[in-house]
Amino acid sequence: xxxxxxxxxxxxxxxxxxxxxxxxxxxxxxxxxxxxxxxxxxxxxxxxxxxxxxxxxxxxxxxxxxxxxxxxxxxxxxxxxxxxxxxxxxxxxxxxxxxxxxxxxxxxxxxxxxxxxxxxxxxxxxxxxxxxxxxxxxxxxxxxxxxxxxxxxxxxxxxxxxxxxxxxxxxxxxxxxxxxxxxxxxxxxxxxxxxxxxxxxxxxxxxxxxxxxxxxxxxxxxxxxxxxxxxxxxxxxxxxxxxxxxxxxxxxxxxxxxxxxxxxxxxxx
Length: 269
Fold this sequence. Notes:
Elements: E1 8-12, H1 17-28, E2 32-37, H2 40-49, E3 55-59, H3 65-79, E4 84-87, H4 103-135, E5 138-142, H5 155-175, E6 180-186, H6 211-217, H7 231-238, E7 250-253, H8 260-268
Parallel strand pairs: 1-2, 1-4, 2-3, 4-5, 5-6, 6-7
Helix pairs in contact: 1-7, 3-4, 4-5
């Protein structure tokens, strides 16, 4: 018996990294999953690797209402319901500072990054609202330690994730009592996370950085988690048994980054 037996989930950005780990964990816990993924290559890989009886894939743009609605409609058409929507797709600014951006990069980068990191989840919530109300389901946003603390990115990324934290709280307020809304704030990990094309970062991947050293150095636990290490928080929040009292919360699973002594050490290092 899994924590999510008979549940149906929609997940954006499920083709690699944390999203791909979430697909596997959701399946292990008994759910059926519709994945909304932008990359055609990652869509093909998902279709080749996953049981088509339990995983369906939509190639589309998580920053649009139409693609989010297509994923929701597929879940309802194929399996009759939607229990959880996980808005996971996002972009990172690779810690680009204000000094390092031209005015044009700042202008265009803001629009592109906020479109996926903030507007995308809001459009997803709108697309999923009717189905989630029908099931008394839940909506979960992937945030970041950057939603809670400075230093996990540049001004564009940090502000977008703080906006996401506000969105979690406001949607939880608006959609109660029928839909629970929560966020998960992981630290970094080795993944294929990319940046805005308008800032010249579309082909730059986190996988090219020494994330293991960077994340371990900036956390109290002094290790770099694997993507799968973060997935339990989503299962808890999606669970109708163990997450039933939780709404408007952001689970800080950022490897102990928020411990005061460690943060001070980082600032002084």
